[in-house]
Every structure is written in structure tokens, then in C-alpha cells.
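call fold(seq) -> C-alpha cells
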Amino acid sequence: MSGYESGEGAAEETFTSDFEGLSGATSTSQADSLPEPPKKKAKKHFVKYRLEWELKHPNIRKSSEDVYKVKCNICNKDFSIAHGGERDIKTHEAGSQYKKNASGRVKMATISAYLQPSFQSEVAKVIAAEVTQVYHAVKHHISYNSLDCGFKLSKVISPDSSIAVKASCGRTKASSITKKVLAPFLLQQAFEDLQDGYFSVCSDVSNKGNIKLNPLLLQHFNFTSGVIYALLDFYDGDAETTTAIAQQITNKSKEHGLKLDHVGAYCGDNASVNYGRHHSVFQLLKGANEDILPANCPAHILHNCAKQAINGLFMDVESFVLNVYNHFSSSAK
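ret:
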């Protein structure tokens, strides 16, 4: 090998070793300068409510606020079990407030058990007797004044009955039971049947002194009870015009959640204000519901029928009536 080649080889080895040393130093310095990766934090596992806890703790129920809470029926409050689980429940039950509330609950249950059988049952029976008597009086159109006398008579007839002795109901109490108990209950039942069914509306005007009373009556058919009548309202008003009556029927129906689309017929007397050909209550209601039918007053229909029939008789009607009366008034039967 020549001197030139040996010198070139030595120079190449020197350059290679220097480059490797430089690259090693560079990589070491870069590794030292890089930041360490952040350590991952451990996830927190929260404890959820478990149904089997109710077997060991009967006064604990699932909270409606959160799945990480339970509700204590003794203290009537919600508390968290997210961190300790059942241990939190045991800690709560070991507290002084829980023990105090539990002791009060036991005493209250003892008092209720002592009073409930004799108090509630007898009071409920007395109330039921009074309401039943009022319902009987209303159904058979008996005066409220007779109820007071009837209850007093029951005490004399049945002195050994504690219900008869304690029951009492005069005119004022009977009126309150009718207006505030029976009427709302019966109307609610009627309205439940009328929500999806069809019904007819009846209106009339009655004078009592200087007051004009306007009853609104509903009639519908129930497969269980047959034909049912319900008094929708009984208002006083001086307006007897066609528009006023139709407006009252519309307003009262909407107040009770009834739809005019479900009205099948309108009933009233045969006056022109109700059944006039051009402007009447029936025509106004028909404008809102074209399927509504007229249901004329049957009493007026019979009256008109008898009137026309009498005009066609070939006899003196007054003489005929007097002869019939004289015959039956002097008859032994």
C-alpha cells in the first residue's frame, strides 16, 4: 500500500470516529432537554345505589335526585354514598339525629295504632251515613228540612247505634254536602264520560220573583247506566236574547272542557228564540257544529198535538170534561 492510500485511510477513520462522537453527544443532550411525560391520574370510581342494600337497611330507598345518593325515610332527606357506598349508610344510621327520628317514628306509630281503629272507622261510618241520607233526599226531591227531623228520629229509634246517635244533618249542612261534595263528584263522573262521547244540551228560563234562572242540562247515554242527565250550570241572568243564550251555552261548555263538536242535539221549548228559522239559538249552535240536530220540547209537541186534535172534535169539549168529572166524582169506586 502506498503512503498516499494509508494516509487517506487514516484520515477517513479519524473523521468517522469524530462524527460518531458528535452525534452521540447531540442525541444525549437532546434526550436530557426533553420534558418528562405527565403521569396519568388515577380515575375516581363513584359508588352507585344498589338495590340489595334495602334488605339490610329497610329505611333506605333510591334517591330521585341522583344515582349516587340514597333517601332516608326516617330523616326524610337525601345524602351521598358516592365515596363510601354502604359505609356511608351505616355512618348515617349510627348518627344521633337518625336515632332520634327513629325513636319518634316508633312512638308515633304506637299512638296511631291505638287511635286508628276506633276513631277513623266510626267517623267514616258517620260521614257515610250523613252523605247517603243527603243523596237520598236530593234524588227523591225531599226537602232539606226533613233531614234534621229524620236524624233526630233515628237517635230515638236506634239509641244503641253509635252511628245513629252521632249522625246529624240539618238544612245548612245538607246544602253544603250537596254543593261541595255530591255535585262536584257527580259532575266529574259525567264529564269523564263526555270527553269522548256525544251529548245533547238543554236550556230553559225560569222566573222566581224578580230573578231569572237559566238551567243548562246535559243528556248522554252510558252503556252501563243508560240515559244520564247532568246539570251543567244554573246561572241567573236577565238576558233572554238568542245571542246571550247561545253564548252562555258555548262559554259554560268550554269552562268544563266540553267540545261543541260533540253536541249531537239542542233541546228547548218551541219558542222562536230557540228554534227560529233565521236567527235562533239552534241556528247559532248549528253555525259552530253543522251536525247538531233539533230536539224540540216533547211537552210542547204533545200540547200542540192535543190542541189540534181538540179543534177537530165534533163536540163541546167543556161539556165533555164536566160530564167526565161528574161521573167519576160521584162514583163509588
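The longest helix spans residues 96-139.
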